[in-house]
UniProtKB/TrEMBL annotation:
Protein name: Glutamate synthase [NADPH] small chain
InterPro entries attached to this UniProt entry: FAD/NAD-bd_sf
SUPFAM superfamilies linked: alpha-helical ferredoxin
């Protein structure tokens, strides 16, 4: 039996689930006797991060307590269009806007 992702670690990030899937795929390949060497032939250019500053998550707004005490409407307001664009363009690993830097570098071979 091979397992990975949330069923092994409990709730975690998508990045960890993908990594666990790659490890499981390599183990299944080896178990079946294929022993393939999976390499990446993609050249990724080095990003220019000189003009990018680290930024954290954008917090959603909340309705005032005096306003929401009278109804059962949503408490959080959600993102504006601009906030949604900024949040979706932020790197989820390192809080850099745009292209992220991976600790330890990119894995070239599985």
């Amino acid at each position: 039996m091979f397992a990975g992702g949330d069923c092994v670690t409990g709730p975690a990030t998508v990045i960890r689930a993908i990594a666990a899937g790659k490890v499981a795929a390599a183990n299944i390949d080896e178990y079946l006797g294929f022993n393939h060497e999976i390499v990446t032939d993609v050249q990724i250019p080095t990003p220019d991060l000189s003009d990018l500053r680290p930024r954290g998550r954008i917090n959603t707004g909340e309705r005032d307590a005096g306003e929401r005490v009278h109804d059962f409407q949503c408490i959080e307001c959600g993102f504006t269009d601009q906030e949604a664009r900024e949040e979706s363009s932020r790197c989820l690993r390192c809080d850099h806007f745009g292209y992220g830097i991976f600790k330890g570098g990119r894995v070239e071979k599985w």
